[in-house]
TrEMBL record:
Keywords, sorted A to Z: Bacterial flagellum, Cell membrane, Cell projection, Cilium, Flagellum, Membrane, Transmembrane, Transmembrane helix
Protein name, as recorded: Flagellar biosynthetic protein FliR
Family membership noted in the UniProt record: Belongs to the FliR/MopE/SpaR family.
InterPro entries the record matches: FliR, T3SS_IM_R
Species of origin: Pseudothauera lacus
NCBIfam families the UniProt entry points to: fliR
UniProt cross-references to PANTHER family, sorted A to Z: FLAGELLAR BIOSYNTHETIC PROTEIN FLIR
Subcellular location, principal: membrane
Gene Ontology CC, one term: plasma membrane
Subcellular location: Cell membrane; Bacterial flagellum basal body
Amino acid sequence: MLVVTYEQLAAWLGGFIYPLARVLGMFASAPLFSHRSVPVRVRLGIGMGIALAIIPTLPPMPAIDPGSYEGLLVLVWQMAIGIAIGFMMRMVFAAVDMAGALIGMQMGLSFAIFFSPTTGGQTAVLSEFLGLVATLLFLAINGHLIMVDLVVRSFDWLPITTTPLAAGGWAFIARYASLIFAIGLLLALPLLTALLITNVALGVLTRAAPQLNLFAIGFPVTLTLGFFLLALSMGHFGPVVASFFERGFDAIDAMLRALASTSTAR
């Protein structure tokens, strides 16, 4: 008769739920995986499949009862690591949304907003358009597969242990978040410069001919010029955003290594 002790059952359960928590944490925050159009059952099924596939390759798990306080704490740490991995790439998409909001405001499309199922709130139309283009580029470079590869390789850099996560890795995430404004401004800078010159020219024209209605002339001009420049810049948008995605993957690598090195140092 097969007899399973509580210690054996706790070891089997811990060996499954700890990797699963890290994978599902990444699915909960990473772009594309966390989209509301992806059913929760699909995410859970894919996460369980990935966890089952990588369990045989993982180092020995710590002998912790998953129902104990220490076991729950380790579970929270694994979820935090997965969420941090997805959040790093989410910030790149936030920079693209910011660029779209800046361009739309300069074009006069700041009033063109609608409900976005991705963010759960009101989003500018141009931000949503650039976000969709960025998502297609993310799929084109197999970014979703790279994210899965990163979360799998994270177990080599950050194995499941009872060692607390160090603050150095979280500080790295905070420093990287400051780049959102720089990346968004760099994406929008060419169009912002051209539209600024257009607005200055319209101001000079209105000053020279006061009888002209600036509101009747300026809005169609800036709108038409903005769409024309946006169409011209689409050919350069892909390589630039792809380079930002590569920087995001490198930042995830650096963040995990920072957490691993500081945790080891402790």
